[in-house]
Every structure is written in C-alpha cells, then in structure tokens.
Amino acid sequence: MNKEEKILVIGSSGQIGSELVMALRKIYGNNDVFATDIKQPTSEIKKSGPFQILDVLDFNNLLHFVVRYKITQIYNLAAVLSGNAEKIPLQAWDINMKALMNTLEVARQSEAKKLFWPSSIAVFGPTTPKYNTPQLTIMEPTTVYGISKVAGERWGEYYSRRYGVDFRSVRYPGLISYKTEPGGGTTDYAVEIFYEAVKKKKYESFLDKDTELPMMFMDDAINNTIKLMRSDKEKLTIKSSYNIAGISFTPEQLAAAIKKRIPEFEINYKPDFRQKIAESWPASIDDSYARKDWGHSIEYDLEKMVDVMLENVRKKFDE
Ligand code: AKB
C-alpha cells in the first residue's frame, strides 16, 4: 500500500517540514516524498530526495505539480506564525488563508484527497477554559493567527463533509526542536533559550517567568502527525482539528531544568508584545479525543526533552 502513496510536503524548509520530510521518506521511500518550499531546504532533504521551489499561493502551479507527480497526500505546513502575524495582520491573513484554500481546492479537484494542515492552540482565547482545555469549547482567539486557524478548521471540516476531502489536522502546542529554528511564534522562547544557554549561559525571555504554555518535543509532534494520517478514517470523530497535549511548563521551570545541567546559566525576564498573546492561550490541554480515536501519545517529558535539546544544540556549535 505504501508503494502507491506519493506525498507532497509544502513548507518543507520550516521547523516542522524539515523533520517531517525525513520521517516520511523513511516510511514511504525517498523518491515518493516531494519536498517543496519557497526557501531552500536543509542539505539532508536536498540530498535524500526530490525538492522543488513551489509557492503554495500559486494555485495553477500547485495543481499542475499535484497532477504531474500523481500526488495522493498533501501536508501543507506554510504559515505566518502568531508573533509575526501581529506585525502584518492583513498580509498574514491573506497568506494563511490562501495557502489553505489553495490546498483544499487542489484536494477537491485532484486525486490528492488526503490533506494534513496544522492548526494550533492559538485557536483558543481568553474566554476559553485555561487548564485542561477541552476539545469542544469556546474559541474566541484575539490574534490574527488564531482567527485564521479557527477559520481554517471550519473550512477543513466543510470540505470534508461537502466534497469528501480527507482533511486531517491537529492543534499543535509550541514545538521544540533543534534541526531548524522556528520563526515568529510566541512559543519560540522555548527553543531560543537552548541556543543562548549553550552559547552565552544566559537568556532574556520575552515571556514572563510564570507564563505556562502547552509544548511538545518535535519527535512526538512528527510521530503523532504521521499516526493521525495513517489512522482509519472511520475512527476519526473530529473532522476539524484534534487537541494534542505534550508537556506544559513556564519559562522559570524550563530555566530551572537547564540550570540543573548548566549551573552558570542565568535567565532574566523582559516580556514584550508576545506576553499578551501567551496569556490568551491555554496552559494545558485535554487530548482525550486524540488518545481515544487514534492513539495519540508522547514519549518526551520536560527532563528528557531538555537532555536531548542540550546535547544536540551543543553538537551544532561544535560542528
Ligand atoms: C506560535 O507560537 O505561533 C506557534 C503556535 C503555538 O502555533 N508555535
């Protein structure tokens, strides 16, 4: 069955894409996973299989690509993240929505019926229950990124019910990884801190010390994303996007875990505009639907994640 799948990853040079492509190539074979982006990819992606510059905003090119390479599944990871989107609200809305609508339409018009699109904890807002945030609850986001994610979830469900597009999605928490740095998110502090801890032994956090947010190590995010995409469609009761939980912590707790391993490490706090965004988001997530429907589970707790991050960020500086 794997042999017949041809997979297109849009946004393959970003934080998620650069790891997802390699994981998919292990499963489906190097030549059947097509990496595309408007930026150059990592050398490992370039060397291991097909990569092409492709702009998801160009509908005709996208459709042509999908038909030409007989694509059966699309992962569309292109997005302007929360912090950056607040600086260019209208542009961010246009990019995020057009990127999604183009892939939904391509899925409708082609054989690439299975579509993954990432939603986010940003769909929630200050009126949402903050702890153990339920799957089905109040969604009144205050950021343009969050508004685009709620709208995107609705459109995904619409295309699924009306046109039979096999739309699948998770609400990612902050993702922590070392291969490619994130860009422009509110949860990015939890990645930056490792680089600064290794390089300078100090970090100035743009979120306050007690701002608790849901996070997840990238390996868990990738494994669960692929698990969702390989699950039986009949088992999926949520047609929009699944809550998935990883680990929740504050900047102070993360700094303490780093200090245990780097005793000289110091942190100070200088909250900027992203503090307000973070305060509007949940602190922890109830992912019981994802666990029950398709077996969502995680392997990395805070301690294990900090060990792996420090080991690999150190290696990067030694290279
Ligand atoms: C962001 O901070 O914007 C993202 C997200 C939680 O979706 N990491």
The gist of it:
The protein has helices spanning 17-28, 43-48, 59-68, 82-87, 89-109, 144-163, 189-199, 218-229, 251-261, 274-279, 288-294, 302-318; strands at residues 7-10, 33-37, 51-53, 73-76, 114-116, 119-120, 166-168, 170-172, 174-176, 202-205, 213-217, 242-243, 247-249, 266-269. The protein is α/β, with parallel strands linked by helices and 319 residues long. The strands form four sheets. The chain has a six-stranded parallel sheet with strand order 3-2-1-4-5-7, sandwiched between helices. A three-stranded parallel sheet has the order 6-8-12.
Describe the structure.
It is a single chain. With 319 residues, the chain is α/β, with parallel strands linked by helices. It has 2 domains: 7-174 and 219-229, Rossmann fold (3-Layer(aba) Sandwich); 176-215 and 246-318, UDP-galactose 4-epimerase, domain 1 (Alpha-Beta Complex). Helices cover 44% and strands 15% of the residues. It has 12 helices and 14 strands. The strands form 4 sheets. Strands 3-2-1-4-5-7 form a 6-stranded parallel sheet, with helices on both faces. α1 (17-28) crosses α8 (218-229) and α5 runs parallel beside α6. The longest helix is centred in the N-terminal third of the chain and has 21 residues, at 89-109. The chain is globular, with a radius of gyration of 19 Å.
Write the layout of secondary structure elements.
Elements: E1 7-10, H1 17-28, E2 33-37, H2 43-48, E3 51-53, H3 59-68, E4 73-76, H4 82-87, H5 89-109, E5 114-116, E6 119-120, H6 144-163, E7 166-168, E8 170-172, E9 174-176, H7 189-199, E10 202-205, E11 213-217, H8 218-229, E12 242-243, E13 247-249, H9 251-261, E14 266-269, H10 274-279, H11 288-294, H12 302-318
Parallel strand pairs: 1-2, 1-4, 2-3, 4-5, 5-7, 6-8, 8-12, 9-11, 10-14
Antiparallel strand pairs: 11-13
Helix pairs in contact: 1-8, 3-5, 5-6, 7-9, 7-12, 9-12
